[in-house]
Design brief:
Elements lengths: L2 H13 L7 E5 L2 E5 L3 E6 L5 E5 L13 H11 L11 H12 L9 H19 L4 H17 L2 H6 L12 H18 L8 H22 L3 H17 L5 H19 L1
Antiparallel strand pairs: 1-2, 2-3, 3-4
Helix pairs in contact: 1-10, 2-8, 4-7, 5-10, 7-8, 7-9
Length: about 260
Amino acid sequence: MDDAAVLFVLREADLAAELPRLGGMARPTGVAIVSERVMCFSDAVDGTLRVTAVPQVRGRAARLPFLRGLVKLFAALAPLFSRRSSTRRPEKLLMLAVLAAPLPLALLPSGYRVVALPVLTIALAAWMLRGRTLRLHGAEHRAIAASESRSLVAAWHGDARPTRFSARCGTNFAALLIPVSTLLDRLWVLPTAALTPMLVTLVSLMVTMEIWLAIQRTPGQLGRLVVLPGLLLQRVTTREPTLADTRVALRAVAGVLDAHRR
């Protein structure tokens, strides 16, 4: 998709009464923008776009409280590991290591886990936000905000600079997960076993996802208060993007919106 085609899609989107709800992820090599139906990865190196279908989960698993959060989480990550994904094999292996990283905590005593969890989280975040990722992370938020404010074309030309901070960012989720995990680890009353740390991690993810989904459904003063630590943390996990960075993310937005038009 060349610049003219991207601008055509963005111009049409600015005039649309309704657009799909977007999320995203920044990587050192580009930006992925995702809707409920598709994900588009915009390569920051060669400018190519790769569109992948997002798995549609239906049935009880998508409706049951607590379980539905995990289903949504894994469905959102699934396109990154598909054969058509632009994610390179070493990157896929490293991302699998990130997802499995909490499991070694099972070998640590409870007191050490309280310290190890935030340290591990910070270390993983530092790896995931390496290189150009910080600016592309800000660009991802800016492109999504431009979609929601119908200022996509203005953002492409640099005439508008929507916020680089997002209430739906995964940084906010991580900032919420740490205290939830710490609290559950302290309050866990089931018999201690080798699997307890993994169970605590799993339950923490489910509880945090339920809180997260509730915030998304009914945003308000309480919701803004809950995500405030994450918004503050985004001052570290994002950087002010250049116009070139913003265009990388806007290309991904155009790829998703174009797929929805077909």
